[in-house]
């Protein structure tokens, strides 16, 4: 492996780590990515850290403000609307490709449903949000497409930033946890297309609920 390949791999690992913190809610929209602290935490050089930041800039998770540094991105109202429209195309489209649901393929989806319920009981909304993202990734994984898996991972990581506008995130998520249970039930009944239509309605409601929380 060349030194260039090694540096590129290290930058990808940096991006993966920071992306994970964003998805878990450990880094909120608007948070500054303090370079010295992150260099120490991730044990990487300044150039590798900045290359990792640039990967996240291209994924629209981070912004660079000249003379100020790198920050977790804040989504605008139009970003959220567009992300929801994109999610509908990808998630519902993925379920429509599924003609038969194997019981073993639902393990990831069911695990996410249980994780969301457990987090709700402890009123840990960040964990509820992370479980919700895993649930939707699990739905798309049923299509068996590595490209769709990669695409939805990027979309949902960016969408996670929308929660920064919420004053009542737990109450928001509890409504949709119940809908996760309904979708899982439909999939267990081998009704993927019915699940896709139910999900379409779910995403429409979610878009409306989110946008009323976002300033004009």
**Contiguous uncertain segments of 5+ residues:** 1-5
Q: From the structure provided, what is the oligomeric state, counting identical versus distinct chains? A: single chain
Question: Which radius of gyration do the C-alpha atoms yield?
Answer: 18 Å
Instruction: Give helix and strand order, one letter per element, not per position.
Output: HHHEEHHHHHH
- What characterizes the major β-sheet? 2 strands, antiparallel
Secondary structure tally, helices: 9
Instruction: Enumerate the strands of the largest sheet in spatial order, edge to edge or round the barrel.
Output: 1-2
Query: In CATH's first tier, which class of the largest domain applies?
Result: Mainly Alpha
Number of strands: 2
Strand content: under 5%
Please give the CATH architecture of the largest domain: Up-down Bundle
CATH H-level superfamily title of the largest domain: GntR ligand-binding domain-like
> What would the average pLDDT be, to the nearest integer?
90
The CATH topology of the largest domain is given as: Four Helix Bundle (Hemerythrin (Met), subunit A)
């Amino acid at each position: 492996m060349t030194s260039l390949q090694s540096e590129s791999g290290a930058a990808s690992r940096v991006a993966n780590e920071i992306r994970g913190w964003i998805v878990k809610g450990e880094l909120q929209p608007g948070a500054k990515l303090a370079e010295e602290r992150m260099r120490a935490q991730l044990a990487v050089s300044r150039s590798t850290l900045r290359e990792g930041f640039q990967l996240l800039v291209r994924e629209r998770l981070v912004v660079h403000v000249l003379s100020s540094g790198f920050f977790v991105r804040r989504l605008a109202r139009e970003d959220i609307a567009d992300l929801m429209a994109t999610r509908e195309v990808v998630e519902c489209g993925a379920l429509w490709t599924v003609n038969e649901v194997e019981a073993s393929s639902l393990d990831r989806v069911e695990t996410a449903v249980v994780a969301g319920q457990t987090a709700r009981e402890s009123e840990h909304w960040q964990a509820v949000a992370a479980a919700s993202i895993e649930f939707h990734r699990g739905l798309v994984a049923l299509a068996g497409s590595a490209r769709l898996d990669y695409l939805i991972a990027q979309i949902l990581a960016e969408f996670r930033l929308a929660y920064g506008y919420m004053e009542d995130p737990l109450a928001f998520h509890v409504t949709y946890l119940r809908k996760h249970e309904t979708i899982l039930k439909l999939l267990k009944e081998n009704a993927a297309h019915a699940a896709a239509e139910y999900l379409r309605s779910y995403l429409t409601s979610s878009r409306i609920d989110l946008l009323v929380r976002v300033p004009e």
